[in-house]
Amino acid sequence: MSDATRVIGIQAPKPGVWTVDPAHTSVEFIGRHLVFTKVRGRFTGMSGTVVVAEDPNQSTVEVSLETATVSTGIADRDGHLRSADFFDVEKYPSITFTSTSIEWTGVRGRMVGDLTVRDVTKPITLDLAFNGIVSDPWGGVRAAFSATGDVDREDWGLVWNMALEAGGVLVSKKVEIEIETELVQQ
Which 8-state DSSP code applies to residue 107? Predict the structure, then answer.
């Protein structure tokens, strides 16, 4: 691909602006229910921009998620997540992330950034993987990345829970984050 650069022999995204393709991006969270069971949720409404710098470590990421689009596949649970107990979508319609540093070593990296939920901003760290770059059938160029990390939801005021008689709580404090994204070169 002639308009891509190479980093340690690996074809990398060309410097410039890339946008998140929401149709080919998955932003998921995983919490535990009743201590044991993983429950997955996702946000289906999102937008984002990545500015790839000449030095990939100087690149920046900005993402916005629409809280009203949270989906777990269970209507009652989704309604509870949209309520004031959790995301309070009427008062806080978006979750945002802005990177503050990115460090790449080959196709693996680490990104630190500010996550804002319910008007509370805290730093988080995500492990990154660059999955490749390709020309699409419509003449565009796409790059794929993965990101993972975990957070304590209570750090953002998401403290609703119920104690269990046998010990533990109904909903875990720790929430895993899994992101798969396609970016489109602008």
Answer: T
d(CA 108, CA 129): 5
Q: Domain residue spans in the chain?
A: 5-185
Q: Would you say 61 and 99 are in contact if contact means Cβ atoms under 8 Å apart? A: yes
CB 72 within 8 A of CB 86: no
In order along its 186 residues, the chain shows pLDDT tens digits of 334 555 545 678 999 999 999 999 999 998 877 767 888 999 999 999 999 999 999 999 999 999 999 999 999 999 999 999 999 999 999 999 999 999 999 899 999 999 999 999 999 999 999 999 999 999 999 999 999 999 999 999 888 776 767 765 667 788 999 999 999 999
For domain 5-185, the CATH class is mainly beta
Tokens of 183: 């970016």
Rounded to two decimals, the pTM is: 0.89
CB 40 within 8 A of CB 26: no
